[in-house]
User: Which sequence fits this backbone?
């Protein structure tokens, strides 16, 4: 069995990045979470919502200081009909780049349902002012 085959069999997602945050390797777990293969050379910003939280700052701090950190990253879906996934990762410096290890809660099938519930709550919240003024939506 090849090294790629071994890494693909893990329940842990393994994503390796260059110093400029481009993908050099993504195992099958990351591809499954995204819903499509992750191409080598893809910029991390094309795959993750790095504006959410402090994730970009944490990644660059790990590159600079070398200290491992735990971060929450929002993985953008490959298809428009799928919701984003929030994935908890441990980030470690690997040479001049980074390795992201993720497990567990990203496999939770309730994540898309939580997204639907959140969107419905927003719609209901927007409708309440109309009902108070005697209007219907």
Assistant:
């Amino acid at each position: 069995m090849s090294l790629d085959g071994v890494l693909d069999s893990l329940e842990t997602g393994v994503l390796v990045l260059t110093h400029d945050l481009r993908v050099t390797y993504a195992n099958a777990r990351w591809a499954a979470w995204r819903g499509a293969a992750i191409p080598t050379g893809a910029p991390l910003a094309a795959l993750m919502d790095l504006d959410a939280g402090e994730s970009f700052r944490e990644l660059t701090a790990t590159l600079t200081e070398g200290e491992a950190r735990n971060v929450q990253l929002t993985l953008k879906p490959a298809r428009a009909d799928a919701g984003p996934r929030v994935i908890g990762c441990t980030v470690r410096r690997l040479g001049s780049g980074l390795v992201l290890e993720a497990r567990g809660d990203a496999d939770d099938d309730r994540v898309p349902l939580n997204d639907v519930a959140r969107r419905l709550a927003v719609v209901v919240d927007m409708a309440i002012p109309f009902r108070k003024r005697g209007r219907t939506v």
